[in-house]
Amino acid sequence: MVFPLSVTLPVAALAAILEAACGYPPALLAAIGHPVMWFGALIDRLDTALNQPEFSEQKRRWMGVLALILIVGVPLWITGAVLDVGYRFLPAPVMLGVQALGTCTLVAQKSLWEHVRAVGVGLRQNGLAGGRQAVAQIVGRDTAALDEAGIVRAALESLAENFSDGIVAPLLWAAVFGLPGAVFYKAVNTADSMIGHLTPRHAAFGWAAAKLDDAVNLPASRVAALCLILAAPAKNRAASRAAVRRDAPRHRSPNAGWPEAAMAGALGLRLAGPRLYKGVRVEDAWMGAGTPEATVADLDRGLVLYRRACLILVGVLLVGALLFMIPA
C-alpha cells in the first residue's frame, strides 16, 4: 500500500507531536508490551531456528538473509493487512490518525530524554556509582571504571546516536512511506541491535542485518547532524559544521559519527574516542576539537540542544505536511 506525501507527512508530524507529549504509556507497556519487544521475540525465534552452530559460515550468512526477509516481511504484511481493512471501513482522516498512533510507538523522543536525564540525576544524587548505573542502561560499553567525564561523554554519544536512530530515522521513513515505512525501519534497526554484531555467533548470521541497517540509517544520520548544527548556539555552529566535515568520516560507523561530531562541535567537547567493550579496548577517532573533560553541566546543555533539534525536525515536518495538504 503506497500513500501520497499528503498523507505520509502529516502522519510523521502528528506522530512526532504525540510521542513527545505522551511517550509510550506504561499501562500499555504492561498490557501488551512494545512493538520493539514483538520484533525482538520474532528475531529470537529465527536466531534459534536458523543460526545453527554446525552450519558453515556461508550457510549461516544465507540463513541470516532469510531471517532478515522474515523479520521485515512479517511485520510489514501484518501492518499492510490492518491498514487495508481499516481503509475499507473507516474514513481516511481517521486512518491518518491510526497511522500516526502506530508510528508514534516507534519513535523515542521522550524515553531518550528521560534515560539521558537520569544519568545527570544519578551523578548529582549518588556520585559516580549513580552515574555509572544510569549510563549502563543506555550504552553497551564497560562502565565500571568510568569517571564523571567518561560517564557524561557516553551519555552524550548515546543521545546523539539515538537522536538519529530512534527519532529522525523512523520519522523520516514515515514521512515518505507512512506507518509501513516506520515499521520497516524499526524491524531492520531492531535486527541489527540484536544480531548485527561481530561475534562468533552473529558475524555471519547478522551480516545482512548490519549492512541493511547501515544503508537505511544513512539519510537520517545526515539529517540528524543538520538538525543538531542548526540547534547549536550561534557561536558554536561553525565548530559543529567543521567537526562533521572533519571527523564524521573517521568514525568506525558510517553513520554514528555524523550526529556525534555535530553534538561534539555544538557543545565544544570531544566525544567518541577509545573505549572498552567487555574488557576489549576499541580504538575510535575523537569527534570534535574541544575538551574531553565533560561535566554534568555539559550533559544539561546536551539535553537542551537535543530538545531544540527535535523542535527543528518537528517544525520541518509540520511545514511539509501543511504544504502538501493545502490544495494548489
TrEMBL record:
Membrane-protein topology: Multi-pass membrane protein
Domain of life: Bacteria
Broad class of the protein's primary localization: membrane
Compartment list: Cell membrane
Organism per entry: Acetobacter cerevisiae
The UniProt record lists the keyword Cell membrane: yes
UniProt-recorded name of the protein: Cobalamin biosynthesis protein CobD
UniProt cross-references to PANTHER family, sorted A to Z: COBALAMIN BIOSYNTHESIS PROTEIN CBIB
One Gene Ontology cellular component annotation held by this UniProt entry: plasma membrane
Annotated metabolic or biological route of this protein: Cofactor biosynthesis; adenosylcobalamin biosynthesis
Keyword Ubl conjugation: no
Entry's transmembrane regions: 25-43, 64-83, 309-326
Stored Pfam families: CobD_Cbib (PF03186)
